Amino acid sequence: MSRFVLGNCIDVMTRIPDNAIDFILTDPPYLVGFRDRSGRTIAGDKTDEWLQPACNEMYRVLKKDALMVSFYGWNRVDRFMAAWKNAGFSVVGHLVFTKNYTSKAAYVGYRHECAYILAKGRPRLPQNPLPDVLGWKYSGNR
């Protein structure tokens, strides 16, 4: 059964048995202190104190030979990579989603989102692998 669960990820996952989840897709806070145009912020986006405990729990609840796809903050990739590897995950792929708009600009205009494909064990290879660069449909966060 597929379902979405709202709550603090660490608190919620502690109630899930070991090796119970077939696949994880996560878009965690990027550790960048995000604030949108209206002033809204994202909980947990300023510190990484939650990152390793969350990755440990995701590894524990994920079934053996299964995958997790995790978006991440590209300028904090060192923290995410360390947490994933320390939890036990292996990196098996990387996805880039191109956007038709610039979400932020500094030295360059940010027109992409990235996600790593992470494995617990040795998941079976797909018959028809996705391309590693995909389009991104703008939803306006609705």
Please describe the structure with a list of short key phrases separated by commas or semicolons:
Rossmann fold; 3 helices; five-stranded mixed β-sheet; globular; 7 strands; alpha/beta; 142 residues
Summarize it.
InterPro entries: DNA_methylase_N4/N6 (IPR002941), DNA_methylase_N6_adenine_CS (IPR002052), SAM-dependent_MTases_sf (IPR029063). Keywords: Methyltransferase, Transferase. With 142 residues, the chain is an alpha/beta fold.
Could you explain how this protein is built, in words?
With 142 residues, the chain is an alpha/beta fold. Helix content is 19%, strand content 29%. It is globular. The relative contact order is 0.17. Belongs to the N(4)/N(6)-methyltransferase family. It holds the Pfam family N6_N4_Mtase. Keywords: Methyltransferase, Transferase. GO terms for molecular function: DNA binding; N-methyltransferase activity.
- Tally the helices: 3
CATH class type: Alpha Beta
Biggest sheet: strands side by side, in what order? 1-2-6-3-7
Radius of gyration: 16 Å
Q: Report the average pLDDT across residues.
A: 90
- CATH topology, anyone? Rossmann fold
Percent range for β-strand residues: 25-35%
> Strand tally, please?
7
Give the termini separation.
25 Å
What characterizes the major β-sheet?
5 strands, mixed
Fraction of residues in H or I helices: 10-25%
The shape, in one word, is globular
- Show unreliable segments: none
Compute the number of structural domains: 1
Overall SS class: alpha/beta
CATH A-level architecture: 3-Layer(aba) Sandwich
The ordered string of helix (H) and strand (E) elements is HEHEHEEEEE
**CATH H-level name... which superfamily?**
Vaccinia Virus protein VP39
Keywords: Methyltransferase, Transferase
GO molecular function: DNA binding; N-methyltransferase activity
Organism: Salmonella enterica (Salmonella choleraesuis)
Family: Belongs to the N(4)/N(6)-methyltransferase family.
